[in-house]
Every structure is written in structure tokens, then in C-alpha cells.
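quick one: protoporphyrin IX containing FE bound model?
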Amino acid sequence: MVVLSGYETVKDALVNHAEVFADRPHIPLFSELTKEKGLLFSNGDIWRVMRRFTFSALRDFRMGSKMIEDKITEECRCLVNTFKAYGGKPFENSTVVTTAVANIIVSIVLGNRLDYDDPTLCRLVTNIRENIRIIGSPMVQLYNTFPSLFRLFLGSNKEIYTNLAEMQEFVTKTITNQKKKLDVNDQRSLIDAFLVKQKEEKPNPKLHFTDVNLVFLVSDIFAAGMESTSTVLRWGLLLMAKYPEIQKNVQNEIERVIGSGEPCLMHRKQMPYTDAVIHEILRFGNIAPTGVPHYTSQDVTIKEFFIPKGTSVMTLLYSVLKDKKYFEKPDEFYPQHFLDSDGNFVKNEALLSFSAGKRSCVGENLAKMKLFLFFTTLLQNFTFQAPPGATLDLTGDAGFTIAPLKHEICAIPRN
Ligand code: HEM
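yep, here:
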């Protein structure tokens, strides 16, 4: 295994030698779980076809960005009502925020949102959380490195298989139901779009739009997209409570640009400060510190280091987001990393939270839409602060992803 760190090295690999780093290594647990299908961990040509399909499904037809924006706005309203019910008292927000943000993925994939107490939604969210926790556990890391030595010790972590089997059973049942009511002229979900492609695909020995691939694709999108964005949003609320002066600046900009209307994506361009704060939350939150592993399909030289064909490569995104050359104050929460001296928003090329190259995150645009709309709606309606007498801790709960440590927060309603 080779570890690449720092922006320039990671960029040289993933961008300048994109095709060489487009594959995934054989990771024992993931290969067993996914049987090399789906998107996240597949090789060959499946991932290319699935990626293309997923991008266009999120962009085109009835699921175009306006429709997705409407779904997010509806979910923001529900989340505001749920927060209001706490009446400004301290509460632990992880379940409710994760459920609300996950509901967008559910709605895009299945065609309709579910109530927060719907048993299917609650089970899906718990299932994915448990699996992300298990994947980050030291025993699974050891098993992936020395599978034959640690197979026996995997023990209770075997629940990862039952969780996955349960999720796949749910997805399979959903597909069977959607097949029965499919109307090619009224595609309402990503599953519908896939089923239409399935009908169009000409018979050939290498079919891509099969039921099995649909089950793996949906499972991958659930796994990669359900908790990631809500974790970033929870970092955002915690950071606002920790830095009230930054929170006030965001609220002032919301008042100036949006007033009491509903936030929409068109506002983003007029809100450089809020945009910079959201980008800094992505950087500081650093939720995917090691990215997802890559694999070299040819010999390659990266920044003078020779890496042979067939090497597993970890891109330390953490080191990129803390690269001193690109971020003036890497260890501080400093929105100025994304602002010029006149207060205009500036992109910072080293913000690789979603990675780069051929296997970069397919949900990047969707995640950014969700972050902007949820963040502005919540800050328009509430001021976030620590419970009386409490000190907020910014230490991350490290695993495969980094979430804030369990904490309580107060959402004080604003007039
Ligand atoms: C703020 C939220 C998110 C962050 C920080 C994030 C980050 C990442 C990262 C670092 C990777 C690995 C890229 C690589 O291997 O080089 C990735 C892959 C992926 N993400 Fe995300 N992601 C987020 C949200 C989402 C959402 C909402 C979806 C669902 C649509 C999603 C779907 C995927 C998929 C399917 C892959 C695998 C792509 C492939 O293997 O070709 N992600 N993401």
C-alpha cells in the first residue's frame, strides 16, 4: 500500500494520471460485500457505465435540479418544525439531522419521501450508520490487511453482512414493486430511470442494466450519500455554536439577501460569506480523511516516486485539506480561506473533500445543494448555541468517516 499526501502529490496522481488511478484495489471485506459489482468498489467497465447513468439521472428528466431543489426545500421545512419542537432546549441532533438529509436520497432513489418515524427510513439510517462504524473499526482494518489471519476475529462485526443483506432485500422488493407500476413516460425516481435503460439495452453478453447491478448501485448510493452530507451539516451547526461571531455574519447576509423568504439556490451567488463558511466547514470537518482506496493499472511515477502497476494507493485527503501551502491557517476554522480581500468568494483548488479524477464523488453537486439549502434555512430560523454551562468540543469521532463527537446543542428560534 502506498500513501499519497499533500495537494500537489494527490493532484498529480488523481488528475494528471487519472486513468492509471481509476481502479479500486481488492479489499477483502468490500469485495465480499459487493462481489465487485455496483459502483463504489467495482472495476472493469461497470463503474464507468453506472457513473454516467448516475450523473445523468441526477441531472436530467423529471429529476432535474429544480425538482431536486424542491425536494430539499420541503425537507428543510420539516427539519425546521422538528427543531422548533425542542423549544430552544438542548438536544442531540444526529438522528434527526441524518434522517432529514438521508430522506433526500430516499426520495430521489425511490420517488417519495418518508416520515421521520417511518420504520423503513429509521432502519435504513441505522443500518448504514452501523456499517460505517464497523468499516472504520480497527478489527476490520486488520482483517482487510491480513484476511486469513483475522477472519476468525471478525466476530460481532459480521453484523455488517446482515445489515447489508437486509438493505439489499429492501431494495430488491422496492425494485420489484416499481417494475410493476413503471410508466416510461413518467419516470419518478432513479430506479425508474434505470428500469427504462434496462428495457432499452440491446441483448448482449455483457449487460449492464441488470437487476443485480441496480441493487448494488442503489445500495452504494445509500451507503455513500446518506450520512456523509448530514455529518458535514452537523459539523456546521457545531461550528456556528462555537463561533457566534461567524454565525452572526452568516445570519446578517441571510437577512440582507433572502430576508424572510425561502432560501433557494439562486441566492448562493449573492452570498459569498455564507458560501465561504460552507466550504470551510467541508475543509475543517474533513469527513473522509483517507478517501476511498485506488489501484494502479500501470507503472507510474508521481512526483519522482515510482509506483508499480497493481499497487493499492491511499490518498490522504486529510493532508490535502491541511496543506499549509494552500490554506493560510490550516488548523483553524477560518472562512477567509475562501474569500478575497474585497469579500468575494474564491475557489481554492486544494479543497478536495470530494476527491478528484475519474472516481471522484458522484454526489458532489447534490451534496453542495443540500448543504447550502439546509444550512441557510436552519440559520435563518435558529441561532445555535452551547447548552448553558457546556463547552463544545471540536474533536472528531474518528472512523472511516469523521463525525463530531456526541454532543447536545440548543436551537434558539429567531423572530
Ligand atoms: C459532503 C458529502 C460528501 C462527501 C464529503 C463525499 C466524499 C466522497 C469521497 C472522498 C469519495 C471517494 C472518491 C475517490 O475514490 O477518489 C466519494 C465517492 C463516492 N461518493 Fe461521495 N461524498 C459526499 C456525498 C455523496 C452523496 C450525496 C452521494 C450520493 C449521490 C455520494 C456518492 C458517492 C459515490 C457513489 C462514490 C463512489 C464513486 C466511484 O467509485 O466512482 N457521495 N465521495
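The CA atoms of residues 93 and 226 lie 15 Å apart.
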